[in-house]
Amino acid sequence: MTIQKLVEQIHKKKSFLCIGLDVDLNKIPKHLLETEDPIFEFNKAIIDATHHLAVAYKPNTAFYEAYGIKGWKSLEKTIKYLNTNYPEIFTIADAKRGDIGNTSTMYAKAFFEDLEFDSVTVAPYMGKDSVEPFLAFKNKYTILLALTSNQGAFDFQTKEIEGEKLYKQVLEVSKSYKNSENLMYVVGATKAEYLSDIRRIVPNNFLLVPGVGAQGGSLEEVCKYGLNDQVGLLINSSRGIIYASNSNDFVEAAVEKALELQKEMSKILG
């Protein structure tokens, strides 16, 4: 996947919606628990019903790893299903990995070569040699945690060090990494007031924005400060879409919620 192809999909669908596939067996419709692979069957149903409204899907790997080898197999089946049936869709492994060089290379191989995701989320705390191994893969993207949507983000990310907020230093330093053009950044929708400063530092990179919907972030505010010439935003909604209903009408409810966001996005794109 290239950025150009992603942008083409955004304009074709008039959407920059990313749907998070965070599957909790305690929340999905009970009738799916009778199937051989409830996680995959749930994902497949959501994907088939919403692929015309979304340009990206983002499985959070914790929701698969929690179920051991069965969960990992469900993740494998999900990404293979996406790549086979909807190859135009941008895929994100929300894994939040990051370790020293050779370990990061193995993480990158796992998600980029074995599972064939287009991108993976990476924690920047260990610095350059933990991020650059991910950036070495052609047409693959590293989504760096910059300013997250959780309350604990204020513990470190917004603290000032020598007069500059830490998240701004992360953004500035990351621009010097080899193949930094393959960087994207996580910026929470609940931190929309920071987007102007973020765009001054990284005007051209895509931002993955969680927090619209269940966490209360405003799509309008995010777009006001975060849009760039290529749109440059992927707005993620997980619980607000996939758990709109836990009954037999879960697919219809998910489509309704996804369509609401897509219509808002279409108006913003003009």
Please sum up the structure shown.
By secondary structure, this protein is α/β, with parallel strands linked by helices.
Task: Explain how this protein is built.
This protein has helices at 3-13, 38-50, 62-65, 68-85, 101-114, 128-135, 153-156, 166-174, 195-201, 219-226, 239-242, 250-269, and strands at 17-20, 56-58, 90-97, 119-122, 141-147, 160-161, 164-165, 183-187, 207-209, 233-237. The model has no long low-confidence stretch (mean pLDDT 94). The strands form two sheets. Strands 1-2-3-4-5-8-9-10 form an eight-stranded parallel β-barrel, surrounded by five helices. The chain has a two-stranded antiparallel ribbon with strand order 6-7. By secondary structure, it is α/β, with parallel strands linked by helices.
Keywords:
single chain, globular, alpha/beta, 10 strands, two-stranded antiparallel sheet, 270 residues
Share of helix among residues?
Answer: 40-55%
Taking all Cα atoms into account, the compactness measure Rg is 18 Å
- Total beta strand runs: 10
Question: What kind of sheet is the major sheet?
Answer: 8 strands, parallel, barrel
Low-confidence stretches: none
Oligomerization category of the chains in this entry? single chain
Q: How would you describe the shape?
A: globular
Average pLDDT across residues? 94
Structural class: alpha/beta
Q: Reading side by side through the largest sheet, how are the strands ordered?
A: 1-2-3-4-5-8-9-10
The share of residues in extended strands comes to 15-25%
Give the SSE order as H and E letters.
HEHEHHEHEHEHEEHEHEHEHH
Q: Give the end-to-end Cα distance, rounded to a whole number of Å.
A: 25 Å
Total helices: the number is: 12
